[in-house]
Amino acid sequence: MAISTINSTIMGKAYEFACIKAFETLLIKIRPLEIINNRSLLIAQERYNEISDSEQKEMLKSALAGLEIIIKMEPKIIEDGKDKLVLELQADTIAENGDIRDILIIRRSIEWEIGISVKHNHAALKHSRLSPTLDFGNVWFGIKSSGVYFNEIKPIFDTLRIFKDNGALWSEIPNKYDTIYVPILNAFKREFDSLYEKHKKGITEKLIMYLLGSNGKDYYKMMHCKNNKTKIQPFNLFGTLNQKAANKNPSITFDKFPLPTKIKDLSFKENSKTTLHLTMNNCWVISFRIHSAASHVETSLKFDIQLIGQPANIFCYEAAW
Asked: What does the alpha-carbon distance between residue 279 and residue 262 come to, in Å, rounded to a whole number?
């Protein structure tokens, strides 16, 4: 694993723990709290203790600013009541089943739950991989990719295996964009287009569910940004966020937003050999940038998948700190 990836993992986990601490600071005098003491919490606390005091203070400021906004959107967090508010950090393995919520906020007495996906200095939807054995069609849509696709990518990954066996660096592969990245992206594009032509609407819906990682659950994405701001973006696909409490309405409101229902185009970004743009109706545009994610050659490549176009009513709030 590259050093930058290790640092990113540490900071991400540390920010999760900062969010738990911030919740405790904001709520401890308002209602009883139960913080689930599981392995995920222990790991996050260990990572938090590894970073510097200044980094801890910065994370806490960021978390407090973001959670104060979420509380304004979710008055059930602080409404009058003697029941416990439960905070739980979910295990990373939960994401394998499509649930990317890092923090759960639960009131069992009223059968209410919301979740937060915590990001530290990145806004990627997913970091999905392509390899000679990984079936993206099956993982993303529940529809198996064709033998034509696997036959097309096999010689490319066979070449990468030779480089890997020789301990080569990605920087040592000659003309890697034209010999590796572009052919793999072209194969991916052809298979994606073929699957869509055969299954149409089912592909669009399942893609959004896969990329947003909801697994049938609405959630907030909270992003710590470098410019002393925290971004809060609700993904209110099913209309379960932003509910009023028994005696209090949200002071910040937003709507359920329209999902895409059809794909218009999947093509290379202009002047790029690493990135495809997927354009859908209802103003949705998703970027798929392929990269190595390591200094030494591996027999897989990783996508950095980001939402770069969205409906105007997808709400995003910036809190300065």
From this structure: 9
